[in-house]
Amino acid sequence: MDDRVLIFDTTLRDGEQSAGVGMTVEEKLEIARQLERLNVDVIEAGFPISSPGDFEAVQTIAREVRKPIIAALAHANAKAVERAAEALKDAAHARIHVFISSSDQHILHQLRKNREEVVEMAAKNVALARKHTDDVEFSPMDSSRTEKEFLAHMVRATVAAGATTINIPDTVGYAIPEEFADLISYLREQVPELGESVRLSVHCHDDLGMSVANSLAAVKAGARQVEGCINGLGERAGNAALEEVIMALRTRADYFGVDTQVDTKQLYATSRMISQISGFAVQPNKAVIGRNAFRHASGIHQDGLLKERTTYEIMDPHDVGVPRSELVLGKLSGRHGLNARLQELGYSPTDDELGSIYEAFKELADKKREVTDRDLIALMGHERMAVAETYTLDAVQVSCGSNAVATATVQLTDKDGGQHTEAATGTGPVDAIYCAINRIVNVPNELTEFSVNSVTEGIDAIGEVSIRIEQDGREYVGRGADTDIIVASARAYMNALNRLLAMGDVTRSPEAVGAV
Ligand code: MN
């Protein structure tokens, strides 16, 4: 049997579907390029029938990202399959991913069909997808709650219709590792093509915190593709965190006897980028890529570690791309040195990007003696969060403190060059700034989240502000970074407002109900 496990990343489809993640096409392309550097095998770029924005994202990624397979999701109906095929038309390697519900809960309540009708729809549309590409994946949605005889029947029918990958999703995060492994073994017995001419895949959700364990148990039972998202992003409690799956397979190769072709040194940079773009912070104690994942607080551990790294570390932080914080750039480091360091961190900035990053870097180096890798990653993230600016922040000034009414003055320039100045009072400095900005921009919205994090240690650290605003049920993420958290707060709000103004009306069609 094949000893390579394919990694199928669905950050741009299942991850993007999760509450509050709205990404622009440019941001999705940026993530797709990073996933290509990470060397994943498959990128699921979107669900083309669900919205014009999804269609455009899949089409753009299919044209620009040439090495991995680009997959697009489609319901088992002709219109959705044709739309997916159209979005993938220019891909170097295109995969259409067809899905339909297989559990009675879904068939009876959501589809209102009988079982045989559903099998027929599945097979018919797999065959239709095969007319467009040789690479067709089929997923019986809610597999883990499906009667297994019926599941095997549906899998057999879609394999006969031409599916080249069969994906078994634990859509609602219901499975238990042993039980899920048994299901995979059962299907392999029932449908001998699985694991041979047809690749067997799994897609697990984390509702009970077992998505990674379920994925790994499935690999042990013969699955050779794992679907998930970096940082475990995704619907509800999220998908299986791919960085954990990848490092478990790598670190415990002695047990699993398989590997992936992922360049694990890109994991940290990928995680940071996705966290910045999605606005979902990574918890410090998160396995593999959390800030504390390789920190040792206990004295005994530190002592052991200094004598021999492997006493308390099962993975080398270098292997997952954790930046070495000793490496610092200073005021005198040139553009060339900056570029070299960014390349080492996994970025390939364009000339334009490098130009504006260099400006930001010099400004930061003036305020802060040492610029660390984490600072650079924050600057890159800020650069790449850039959206078309309807308004630009020119200046912000606040007076506040105890026994004072917080008062802010802001100055913005609109895209036609018009200058606007406003002042406002508020309950605190941030409130005052946001009130002053609102007087100029005048777009009703509600602030739903606000957080400040320091990028590095030290009193002169960059503060990174992450916010979410909501308008008509849609959320927009904004980020800003500066050594002054008041300025960072103003930037984050402008970033979110500009995103809201740029993305405008991107509603999803009601047809986008449900997904694997
Ligand atoms: Mn899913």
Task: Summarize the SSE layout with pairings.
Blueprint: E1 6-9, H1 11-17, H2 25-38, E2 42-46, H3 52-64, E3 69-75, H4 78-87, E4 94-101, H5 104-111, H6 115-132, E5 136-141, H7 148-160, E6 165-170, H8 177-190, E7 199-204, H9 211-220, E8 225-228, H10 242-251, H11 253-256, H12 267-278, H13 299-307, E9 328-329, H14 335-344, H15 351-367, E10 371-372, H16 373-384, E11 391-399, E12 406-414, E13 419-426, H17 429-441, E14 446-454, E15 463-471, E16 474-482, H18 485-503
Parallel strand pairs: 1-2, 1-8, 2-3, 3-4, 4-5, 5-6, 6-7, 7-8
Antiparallel strand pairs: 9-10, 11-12, 12-13, 14-15, 15-16
This protein binds manganese (II) ion.
What report would you give on this structure?
The chain is an alpha/beta fold. It has four domains: 6-278, TIM Barrel; 294-319, no CATH class; 325-384; 391-502, Alpha-isopropylmalate synthase LeuA, regulatory domain (Double Stranded RNA Binding Domain). 41% of the residues lie in helices and 20% in strands. The protein contains 18 helices and 16 strands. The strands form four sheets. Strands 1-2-3-4-5-6-7-8 form an eight-stranded parallel β-barrel, surrounded by nine helices. It has a three-stranded antiparallel sheet with strand order 11-12-13. Strands 14-15-16 form a three-stranded antiparallel sheet. Strand 15 (463-471) and strand 16 form a beta hairpin. Helix 2 (25-38) packs parallel to helix 3 and helix 17 (429-441) runs parallel beside helix 18. It is globular and about 75 Å long. It starts with 5 loop residues before the first strand and ends in a 13-residue tail after the last helix. Residues 14, 171, 203, 205, 234-235, 239, 516 line the site of manganese (II) ion.
